[in-house]
Amino acid sequence: MANLETDFLGIKSPNPFWLASAPPTDKEYNVRRAFEAGWGGVVWKTLGSEGPPIVNVNGPRYGAIYGADRRVLGLNNIELITDRPLETNLEEIARVKADYPDRAMIVSIMVPCEEAAWKAILPRVEETGADGIELNFGCPHGMSERGMGAAVGQVPEYIEMVTRWCKQYYSKPVIVKLTPNITDVRYPARAAHKGGADAVSLINTISSIISVNLDDFSPEPSIDGKGSHGGYCGPAVKPIAMNMVAEIARDPETAGLPISGIGGISTWRDAAEFMSLGCGNVQVCTAAMTYGFRIVEEMTAGLSRWMDEKGYTRVDDFVGRAVPNVTDWQYLNLNYVTKARIDQDACIKCGRCYAACEDTSHQAISMSPDRVFEVIDGECVACNLCVDVCPVENCITMERLEAGTVDPRTGQTVSDDYANWTMHPNNPMARAAE
After folding, report:
1. Is the dihedral of CA 254, 5, 320, 75 positive or negative?
2. Exactly one of 139, 279, 353, 390 is catalytic; which is it?
3. CA-closest candidate to residue 61, choices 45, 36, 81, 34
4. What is the pLDDT of residues 102-154, one digit of tens each?
5. How many CB atoms lie within 10 A of CB 27?
6. What is the spatial distance between Cα 179 and Cα 55, in angstroms, rounded to a whole number?
7. Which of 44, 59, 151, 396 could form a disulfide with 144, with the two C-beta atoms 3.0–4.6 Å apart?
8. DSSP for 62-118, written as a single string
9. pTM, entire model
10. Whether the Cβ atoms of residue 65 and residue 73 lie closer than 8 Å to each other
């Protein structure tokens, strides 16, 4: 069987599935239950300094976006960092780590952007025996208004400065958690790398208002008729997270920087995709909050089975395998031509493909009087919309035209030679070279 053990920054865990810093990791009781369920590690919910107490709202803290079957697609939360005493958290971290030495224990920290504040808390965290720290530079609500969280993560100079302080006053691995609420995630990642970070984790939640109550016109979750922007997470943010992970993984200035992937990971497949884009492990939150801790059993079993089928003996065998295949648009091969094909035996004659293509695309699907749908090759641009809207899996597929055949839409002969495309007059890079 595949070996799911990971070694991330020298921190060993029995599998790559960690719980992210969030409500599920706020106390000893939860974390013990998580480890008993099989999680490979946790990032303890963000600790603050011993300043003014953190006071969370006593009304609703979460809002949700649902799919057609009421499956949770996204959660919005307005909860702050831990509101429990610092000393209580530190004592619990030490006890849990002592009882589960084979599990990864990372402590998330967020204190004011002052050297003295970091210098004061870091030795106390190190005394717990935790394996490392995660700097919360991503929280988009509540704490950012106080000059912490995303307020730091949006300023590369601050990221580099605080990371240097942590490397100076803390001897174990330092992971920098990045905010997605920024135009180009490569700049904060470069700053973390320059400051000496051992790794980055991303993404933190996306600043959002998830819905508005149309009876009292307050954003939800609503507190006495008022609402605030919160942090958006869950399956809906996965594409955004994977793009940001890939941008860091393929950036020459951060090449080789370890990454812990976060953002909508709900299944083993999600985890495998993140890891193929360069993540050494993954962190999960919303899925655990939706289905409970035992979802990790499905994740580990599924990942192990897939690895066995592919012949991978350890996770390092596929980490980063997709990174070389992520490129900029101008490098895509325009000699690659496909056409949609409809399996008439699988077709249920719903007409979605026809409606979508006829009204909003390229009028490349015909409908006969008895509702037989056929692709018109001369009009099909291979946009894939029909595949995406079809309710029957694999009923519509994309078939590649063989080299040497004539594309009925353009009248040009299809080439299988990628080298031809590199010098094609439509390739902007070829024109630039000239």
Report:
1. negative
2. 139
3. 81
4. 999 999 999 988 999 999 999 999 999 999 999 998 776 656 556 666 678 88
5. 17
6. 23
7. 151
8. EEEEE-TT--EEEEEE---S--S-HHHHHHHHHHHHHH-TTSEEEEEE---S-HHHH
9. 0.91
10. yes
